[in-house]
Amino acid sequence: MDILVAIKQVPDTDKVRMDPLTGTMVREGVDTIVNPLDLYAIELAIRLREKHGGKVTAFTMGPPAADKALKEAIAMGCDAGVLITDRAFSGSDTWATSYALSRAVAKMGAYDLILAGERATDGDTGQVGPCLAAWLDIPVLTYVGSVESSDERSIVARRLVEEGYQRVRVQTPCLLTVVKEVANPRLPTLRGKKFARQTKIAVYGASDLDAEPTFLGLKGSPTKVSKIFYPKVTRGGRVVKASDEASTDLAVDQLVAFLEERDLLGAGDPVRGR
Amino acid sequence: MNEVWTIAEQGGGRLKSVSFELLARGRNLADKLGVRLVSVLLADSIGEEALRELIERGADHVVCIEHGALRDFVCETFSKAIVAIARERKPQIILAAATSSGRTLMPHIAVTLHAGLTADCTELDIEEGTGLLLQTRPAIGGNIMATIKTPDHRPQMSTVRPKSARALERDSCREGTIERIALDPSFVEKRVEVLGLERDVEGFENIEEAAIVVSGGRGLKKADNFKLVRELAESLGGVVGASREAVDRGWITYPHQVGLSGKTISPRLYICAGVSGAIQHLAGIKTAETIVSINSDPEAGIHKLADFALVGDLFEILPRLRKRIDEKRVAGRAKLANEEACS
Description:
Chain A is of the alpha/beta class.
């Protein structure tokens, strides 16, 4: 089973600090990591290869430094990496990103399955997966929480939806986006890291892809950012301290009054409420 | 003039409440533009009364596309159905819910129609002069808000989180039209087969569509103590959420996880106990209407985001809070019964 894993390099939010004066995020000097949700996709890909054989290729679009993310994927157990990088791609929205990725996939050759994290922790749209499937005209299952069975022709997966789990059988080739519970990602091994250092990452620029130039980058993106602003993190809410029995009772009374003021006590689902 | 559309959602032949929330958003935009608001529903079969409700809650026109294959969500079938009528009728705006189906369907449609799509909008407005849709959304874990426009492509498409807008009151005097059309059978996706829906999975909760969510974190100390959170949620008619730490410790299952690697939610009320407020957790709740934090650490990050920060011992506070809320409920019922008896 030949599997492609779409990954993204994102800022490491664990290391993000808040500016105490403005209440906004300090972005300078923030490290980059593989999007945490993509690790689940990488792990699932490696497990499916262990079961079926074949090859796992991680691919990403980003600046030249994004090859670090691909090396990490290889250190975990992927066989190869493809970096899609070119100034022509910069400023892409999800429409233009997924178009460029689809042209890169076309260049990579035959595959059985494409996996991706459900969304990236920076852009947080979850759109690139379904968009990529639409470009490639392959079926897409999102929010996959587990793969029940798989063979060369089809996959049975459980999608985490609002009411529970939707069980679906899908023919390959197809694209799945996965959530955390699909697999617990392994750590890179020393051998994996060594292999990653030795592995040459394939690099695709815009001219390597059979792509419509007007569909690329900022120019090819239907959506345009017209304004960016930094909301204050603090809401300046009321702070009430409860240290002993009397102050706890008082604090609870104040909280109940606060909820009543905001008309929230009856806001719940009456069927659930006793 | 080109219409504003909302994509309604149903399950088991019943409309989901998010369909009405979308109509409230859409009504505002359609009025500013002076155009019709149309609600589009895909279903296997649905009664006239349900479609009437879409009109009573804001739609001028309802399009119901019907086919047995539309009982369960299959992205490709739904996408083809909507793309076909959108190509013919050319709406200027399409709004859908940021649900598991809406967030899958809308990107698929956007690629096919060569349209601009913005995810998880918290505010939608019309720009004066140009009539363009202004879409405001949080990014980078809610630390940045971006306003996005689609100048040259139509339709302009957005997804909106459930519970982030309130539905309009039902108005039985509102008039509108209902149109039922059959799905072109060639649109039915043959590569995908829905085998079933597992409901009532043990401990499963639908935290994204709940109006009230009560969450627990590491401060609960052990799995057993989640019952304090569960009981409070039950008293409030809410559902149970959890921080990543609580899920990673195995105290509760992943579908409850709130935050960057879990779910991003916008309930009317979010109460969390023993949650420190890591930036990833805060990102999942930034758009909640009211946040109440209960944590003994006065420096906990969660207190800074809260509208009401209670610094104290959750083991003392939660049982008392639940008791007070239960008393209120009983008192409220007695009052109601009394009023009914008098009238």
